Amino acid sequence: MKILVCISKTPDTTAKIAFTDNNTKFATEGVQWIINPYDEWYALVRAIELKEKDPTTVLHLVNVGGAENDAIIRKALALGGDEAIRVNIESQDSFTIASQIAQVAKDGGYDLVFTGKETIDYNGSSIGGMVAELLDWSYVSLATKLDIEGSNVKLTREIEGGEENVETSLPLVVSAQKGMAEQRIPNMKGIMGARTKPLKVVEPVAAEALTSIAGFELPPAKAGVKLVPADNPEELVRLLHEEAKVI
Amino acid sequence: MSVLVYIDHTDGEIKKSSLEAASYGAQLASQLGVAAHGLVLGTLNAELSALGKQGLQKVHQVKNDSLNQFDPGQQAAMVAEAVTSLGATVVVLSNNVTGKALGPRLSARLRAGLVAGAVALPDTGNGFVVKKAVFSGKAFAQVAVSSPIKIIALTPNAFSVSNGDGNAEVADINLTVPAAKIKVTGINKIKGQIPLSEAELVVSGGRGLKGPENWGMIEELADLLGAATACSRPVADSHWRPHHEHVGQTGGAVAPNLYFAVGISGAIQHLAGVNRSKVIVVINKDPEAPFFKAADYGIVGDAFEVMPKIIDSVKKLKGK
Ligand SMILES: Cc1cc2nc3c(=O)[nH]c(=O)nc-3n(C[C@H](O)[C@H](O)[C@H](O)COP(=O)(O)OP(=O)(O)OC[C@H]3O[C@@H](n4cnc5c(N)ncnc54)[C@H](O)[C@@H]3O)c2cc1C
To answer: Given the CA of residue B206, which atom of ligand 1 is nearest to it?
Structure first.
């Protein structure tokens, strides 16, 4: 079986969110970059587990972006995976990124494509579904469990207020979230090994962006907290009822 | 030209998030001066003509039980066919669990730009620009959609349900039903609980509550208020509470009218999942807890002393 895991680079969860160029660009100065947590903790680790169970599995990673992404790709390779592919194009919108990944998936003859449930920067949760549609494959999103038996795949996905068990077959695109696997910390052997794993750079296919970002804004600052004394919690209930009118 | 709203349903009822999408779609349609239609795939108990209250003029339905099992590939093909045959130029759906699977497929299929997680009506004065939350609620982006057909996936609980007195015309629509590739084999729903993603009120607990045995007060307050329960990440990681209650940057994102946080420090990753709540209340014994900076109301105090009094007071308020 051939598995492809999509790896996105995102700002660290504690990064200061600010904008430049008249609020049209994210201010990257001083920002630490990480592998998008959903891609790393859930999608990639589950794929690694599948390879550990069946060592004949081929596991590749894919990233869409410039050479500045290579450090993050090597970090992901330190966790696992045989090689990585970077499609050399500045990412524009979800559709252009998905078009690149779909092409890589098609060319490489993969059976299973993993994404994280969303990236923590653009929160689009779009790439997996778009890739699936472009390939005409099944798509199970927000999955918390995945097991493969031959070409049959059993998954659990989130629904409102619970979960649903589903069955489908390969080829398949899955978006992974909490429950799918447990976060792993790369070890020394992994980090050393990642340096020599192949990182192939491929040129993009033509794809037109459907959306663009016209500008950013920060939410209005909070007015400040109204503190209620601890010996009079009844006052809090009154305020929520009469002033905030939420209960 | 029309706005087509995809109506999502479960257990025979229209989801609240879809009533929001219908209200949004109808207001957008009047902004554009076009008709607002709905599309229902599957069978319901609910009376579809009632979608007129949200402002839809006509609801098209494919009455087929098998469509109650959700396969986003199958449904994307059907919605795309409906978009073409009805001449819709904007598709509105909720960015709920269904919309997150269906929206992107539909977008790629129709080559229609998708705004996933819209929080306001588009600005159509100059182009088509939709506001959405980015950086896990820490900022907003104005997204310009350039394709002829546009898809808007509306964030749940970001737009209020309108309740007029219209009546929608309901009609069957004939669409090709492709074979489903996904089979639902079991459903595991926690009975009687309000789904976190749809909740207007949320009571949430953190590590300050010391252990799962102390969640009685969280559940009791939630019960009294008709609220859903949530928790911080370490609480879910320690299996004090189920994973689906975990909110924050790496869990669920919520935007209720009230987020009531007890014994949660308010780490930046936690705030990322709750910062779009309308009112935030924080109960924490540490006056330096970062959560107070993001809160509207707070009590610096021991949850074990404060919470029983709050519960009593809410009981009185509710006449219980
Ligand atoms: C990449 C990354 C992603 C993350 N994603 C998330 C996420 O999605 N969601 C999330 O929640 N966290 C996330 N975290 C973890 C986050 O950084 C915090 O560690 C976590 O939110 C802390 O949870 P807590 O507030 O429950 O516990 P603590 O930080 O231990 O805080 C407990 C609080 O309870 C108070 N307290 C103690 N006793 C009492 C009492 N008797 N009465 C009242 N108050 C009391 C304390 O003063 C303290 O403020 C993430 C971290 C990283 C690095």
So the answer is: 26
